[in-house]
UniProtKB/TrEMBL annotation:
It comes from Haliscomenobacter hydrossis (strain ATCC 27775 / DSM 1100 / LMG 10767 / O). SMART domains: ELFV_dehydrog (SM00839). It comes from the Bacteria. Coiled coil: none annotated. This is Glutamate dehydrogenase.
Length: 473
């Protein structure tokens, strides 16, 4: 079995730990585990009158299904092993939520906060051109998306660069997801990862016997939580946990430090304050900790800890000080495998990353489908469904001799918009996947944690493809 400290080592360890429970032959397991293609590039970009050489990667972990899929990260911590770990997680993630892609991931080794938008555009376009040259991007080949340090703006540049090279491809918009809604994106992708994280936490909290084991009552309402990272994933997770789950945010960690208030912090107010002041540190009524103590957020007293920044933040060094009863892995790889051992021994419930943050790729799948169909979800049936529901309400009115008001009619007989359908598809996906994972754990008394159960499920699904398709030649 692999060692357990680093990110890629941890992912390999989690795979090796689950593999014996599948009963599959070693050769097949080896094929599922390895990264199929690793592409490292160095390309020049002219910035501020100087040539800068940029190091970048695209890793396609598994070609058992194509296209491959996964985000692009801009960070100065990017390295080959990190991208390999992230690409591997993508394959297991897609399998868990039945999204029909192989896993991939890209990384560009830059600190995006040090560059102007014009400079970032140059880097993004050149990186895309490198992928096009190698046939490593395209709607049926490999479809990137946002990850740490990138968002819809970068995805629009990628799409536009792809179009410049492949303007005659009718499905060109499907070459990348997470695009702005006005540029062939889908409503709901921006919030999707955070919304999926909330659905996953809610499912876990709704199982009374699991909550009893960790000394909590069932349901999300009133549960306290701490967020690490106020980027795309952290922000939407925080808002939706507060607004739809009735949960209470008590602490936050960001690059400038950490804040804590056991009575609760309103996330919307905090985000406004941080935007206006460039920092959250002097937010009213909180205990503040400076930049050098920012990791203390992970150790705050709370029911649910949500790491939503980077990998390997819970290590063997701080694991024994984590007080949360539930660790909800919104980020990819926040818990190193040796730290996980400590957390599980202390009876914590860990909701694993490659299930919990799969909302992003799920809605990316919806966006890709929208791009291939060239039509907004709901366009064909919204008015038809609305008409049928109005007929039904009119019938009930006649039968009961009671009139509904215009306001009531608007609520009852509303046809679904694109955002309603996307959220509904995402919710269904996260609920179904959670109970599939839990079922693996319940049915196998030797499996005591959700990560191993999820990994067993993922490996079994991927192996089914290999076994039914055979191995060529
Ligand atoms: N964007 C997406 O759709 C998805 C993202 N993820 C994962 O979620 C995590 C976060 O990604 P995004 O929110 O997209 O990135 P982002 O770039 O939007 O935000 C990340 C935030 O983390 C903060 N941060 C960095 N280091 C920190 C530290 N030591 N302590 C506290 N905060 C810190 C940054 O200042 C930034 O605000 C990553 O692990 C990513 O791989 C997973 C699935 C999908
Ligand atoms: O939306 C996608 O295709 C992938 C998002 C991603 O990079 C991830 O889930 O880690």
């Amino acid at each position: 079995m692999s060692k357990k400290g680093g990110f890629y080592e941890s992912v390999e360890y989690y795979f090796d730990r689950a593999a014996p429970h599948t009963g599959l032959p070693h050769g097949l397991l080896d094929q599922i585990k390895v990264c199929n293609s690793v592409y490292r590039m160095n390309f020049p970009v002219k910035l501020r009158d100087e040539v800068k050489v940029i190091e970048a990667y695209r890793v396609q972990h598994s070609h058992h299904r194509t296209p491959t899929k996964g985000g692009i990260r801009f960070s100065n911590h990017v390295n080959q092993e990190e991208v390999m770990a992230l690409a591997s997680l993508m394959s297991y993630k897609c399998a868990i939520v039945d999204v029909p892609f192989g896993g991939a991931k890209g990384g560009v080794k830059i600190n995006p906060w040090e560059y102007t938008p014009e400079e970032l555009e140059k880097i993004t376009r050149r990186y895309t051109a490198e992928l096009i040259k190698r046939n490593m991007i395209g709607p049926s080949v490999d479809v990137p998306a946002p990850d740490y340090g990138t968002g819809s703006r970068e995805m629009a540049w990628i799409y536009d660069t792809y179009r410049a090279f492949k303007g005659d491809e009718i499905d060109a918009a499907g070459c990348v997801t997470g695009k702005p809604v006005t540029q062939n994106g889908v409503r709901g992708r921006e919030e999707a990862t955070g919304r999926g994280v909330f659905y996953g936490i809610r499912e876990a909290c709704n199982v009374p016997e699991d909550m009893k084991k960790i000394g909590l009552s069932a349901g999300t309402k009133g549960k306290t939580f701490v967020l690490q990272g106020l980027g795309n994933v952290g922000t939407f997770t925080g808002k939706i946990c507060q607004e739809e789950g009735g949960m209470i945010l008590v602490g936050v960690g960001e690059v400038e430090g950490a804040i804590y208030n056991p009575d609760g912090i309103d996330i919307n107010d905090l985000l406004e304050y941080r935007k206006a002041n460039g920092s959250m540190l002097n937010y009213p009524d909180v205990q503040s900790f400076g930049k050098d103590q920012r990791e203390i957020a992970l150790e705050f007293e709370c029911d649910v800890l949500v790491p939503a920044a980077l990998e390997s933040v819970i290590t063997i060094n701080n694991a024994s000080r984590i007080k949360a009863k539930i660790i909800a892995e919104a980020a990819n790889g926040p818990v190193a495998a040796d730290a996980e051992e400590v957390l599980l021994a202390a009876g914590k419930l860990i909701i694993p990353d490659f299930y919990l943050n799969a909302g992003g790729v799920t809605v990316s799948y919806f966006e890709w489908l929208k791009n291939l169909s060239h039509m907004r979800f709901g366009r064909m049936d919204k008015r038809f469904n609305q008409g049928r529901m109005m007929d039904m309400v009119n019938l009930i009115e006649r039968m009961t001799n009671r009139d509904v008001t215009n306001e009531e009619m608007k609520i009852i007989a509303r046809g679904a918009d694109e955002i309603d359908l996307v959220r509904s598809g995402l919710e269904e996906t996260m609920i179904t996947a959670y109970h599939q994972i839990r079922e693996v754990m319940v049915m196998n008394p030797k499996i005591n944690d959700l990560r191993t159960a999820a990994m067993v499920g993922a490996i079994n699904k991927i192996s089914n493809d290999y076994m039914s398709l055979g191995i060529w030649p």
